[in-house]
């Protein structure tokens, strides 16, 4: 895509994380004993056998200002154990998008910003064939939230991608 900032061509990809930071930092032995995971949900066990932390893979859409469309961050969000049960039970339900949004917290550190771990978000289920969607609260003062809420140019998406490699 032609960039209005630098006049260059940028391939537009979505920045994403493969796992929540806390899971990514674990050794294989720790993961084997404490983590239940698939490509969409990670559950972390504490001392007992039940999970005490649950993470869901989501998207965070960001409006593009200089071309039509959005960029979607691929982020993990931590949800309460109770909300994780709601999510799990509705995972394949075609009516899941009718479930009210739930409180969550970002579970990844986004490079180039003050710490984004635990940044509050709302998680909304969107359908059985799409990832849940995150939204930032309009009253957030965090620089990442402010920038995403305002929208970005494709050159900024390139900057984001460059910090991820």
Secondary-structure map with pairings?
Elements: H1 21-24, H2 28-34, E1 35-37, E2 41-45, E3 51-63, E4 70-79, H3 81-90, E5 102-106, E6 120-124, E7 133-136, H4 143-150, H5 154-164
Antiparallel strand pairs: 1-2, 2-3, 3-4, 4-5, 5-6, 6-7
Question: Would you mind describing this structure in some detail?
Answer:
It is a single chain. Strands 1-2-3-4-5-6-7 form a seven-stranded antiparallel sheet. The chain is 24% helix and 27% strand. The protein is an alpha+beta fold and 165 residues long. It starts with 20 loop residues before the first helix and ends with a helix. A hairpin with an 8-residue loop joins strand 6 (120-124) and strand 7 (133-136). It has one domain. 25% of the residues are buried. It is built from five helices and seven strands, in the order ααββββαβββαα.
User: Strand fraction band?
Assistant: 25-35%
Domains counted in the coordinates: how many? 1
Distance between the termini: 20 Å
The radius of gyration is: 17 Å
Compressed to H and E, one letter per element, the order equals HHEEEEHEEEHH
What is the number of beta strands?
Answer: 7
What summary fits the major beta sheet? 7 strands, antiparallel
Helix content: 10-25%
Structural class: alpha+beta
How confident overall, as mean pLDDT?
Answer: 91
Strand order of the largest sheet: 1-2-3-4-5-6-7
* Shape annotation: globular
The number of helical elements comes to: 5
